[in-house]
Amino acid sequence: MTLATPIPIYLVTETELTQDHPDSQPWAAATGFKGAPNSSCLVPGENGTLAKVLVGKPDPVDTWTLGLLPKALPPQTYTLADSWSPALATQLWLGWRLGEYSFSEYKRQPAAPVAQLVPPTGANHAYVAHTVAATTLVRNLITTPAGDMGPAQLEAAAQALADTHSANLTVICGDALLKQNYPMIHGVGRACAQPPRLLDLTWGNPEAPKVTLVGKGVCFDTGGLDVKPAAGMKLMKKDMGGAANVLGLAEMIMGLQLPVHLRVLIPAVENSISSQAIHPLDVLPSRRGLTVEVGNTDAEGRLILADALWEAVCEEPEPQLVIDFATLTGAARIALGTELPACFSNRPAIADKLLACGLAVDDPLWQLPLHQPYRAMLDSSVADLSNISSNAYGGSITAALFLQEFTRPEIPWVHIDLMAWNLRSLPGRPEGGEAMGIRAVFELIKQTVAAIPEQI
Q1: What pLDDT, in 10s, does the model give residues 242-255?
Q2: Active-site option among 34, 228, 375, 408
Q3: What are the angstrom distances between the C-alpha of 71 and each of 47, 60, 114?
Q4: Which residues contact 89 (CB under 8 A, 6 or more apart)?
């Protein structure tokens, strides 16, 4: 059997269309193709065949240039006709592969077949494979309904990842959290039929530089006794998006064998409503020893992260970098929209490096300040601090300042407040659960902790 010859794809501007493809101009004119980004033109050949595909070339060419094509083109095999640098070849192939994704677990009909791209010359196969695997894992975990993705199922996903990469996973579950001094994780999760737990994954050479990731794993958030309205609760299956993203990032780190000692901490809970739920104005002890007044039970993510963060910064030997991911505040979404995660850090140079890494791999973040004068807004008259601010302004900053109380100034720390969900479909990024910031953070870890300077 003779395999069909791949159909060539050419990236063109309007000028290049005129200069380099004069034979295709009549067809392009007939179809209205002018080389605009995110547009394409299928040029017919003889006997009803497809001769080539013209694709609008953006300036600059980026990861998402080909992201629409897997589902827009006929499900055949294609190849890039132009030559690209290894970095751009990798980004173009990655964007194509991410554009192939569909979540069809609950559909009667399987997902429609998609177009396939021959790996471009020079592309980094391992990077693309593990980044696609990581992003698929993140998207699937977040998009899965909460009825099928509680703390136990999140633990199972972490165990499967650990098994794949010969990592070790330990779990502290239920009342054992109290015995081992994780009282806020227990307090938030105790109202759910599935008991709360702390997932602790470790991998790599213990003598290597250490990096610790912490992910908010609220598998569903009713708001607790400060119950959310229906509209606010609808998307709360995504409130474990921080946990999903650190598992995806761990897939990249382990799969690509970064020379680091990795630890991943995920407090996995459901913020449910029952007679066991914490009350507004309850005072909880914490792993650090500080007492926390629960000003609002819907500000639960920072409570479970606090216990996990204190564990992260107190481990021996100390990590060189601690990074947490959390779907933490609506305030960050008001400030930056849903597609741009906010980041905070106690090290300005690390924040600057992270932003640069994000721009380099088309995975941007934006820094917000740890504005210390706002810390007074977290004061409580009955406890060491409150989990909410005394006013409604600057909510993402005051949430980050709360978390900072459970870090240590001598240990570099980055906090990422993300949406973890696409409200609209974009090239390579369909509506639904999404990996946000993990490619940027991978580059940061690779270049700063693992000391590998090269880009992808």
Answers
A1: 999 999 999 999 99
A2: 228
A3: 24, 23, 5
A4: 80, 120, 121, 122, 123
Delimiting residues of CATH 3.40.220.10 domain(s) in the chain: 7-123
Give catalytic status of residue 228 as yes or no: yes
String of DSSP letters for 285-328: E-TTS-EEE-S-TT--HHHHHHHHHHHHHHSSSPPSEEEEEE--
Look up tokens 């213990």; give the residue.
206
Question: How many CA atoms lie within 13 Å of 283's alpha carbon, on the beta-carbon side?
Answer: 9
In angstroms, how far is CA 430 from the centroid of its own chain? 14
In degrees rounded to 5, what are phi and psi of residue 259? -80, 70
Q: Active-site residue 97, yes or no?
A: no
pTM flag (> 0.85): yes
Catalytic residue among 52, 197, 210, 302: 302
| Torsion (CA) 261, 324, 152, 388 in degrees, nearest 10 | 150
Residue 272 contacts residue 191 (beta carbons within 8 Å): yes
Domain 127-449, CATH among 3.40.630.10, 3.40.1110.10, 1.10.390.10, 3.30.750.24 = 3.40.630.10
- pLDDT tens for 378-402 read 999 999 999 999 999 999 999 999 9
Q: Determine the length of the chain.
A: 456
Q: Write down the architecture of domain 7-123 according to CATH.
A: 3-Layer(aba) Sandwich (3.40)
**Which residues pair with residue 367 across a beta bridge?**
343
The answer to whether 416 and 365 are in contact (CB under 8 A) is yes
User: How far apart are the C-alpha atoms of 392 and 403, rounded to whole Å?
Assistant: 17
Are the C-beta atoms of residues 365 and 332 closer than 8 Å to each other?
Answer: no
Tokens of 442: 């991978």
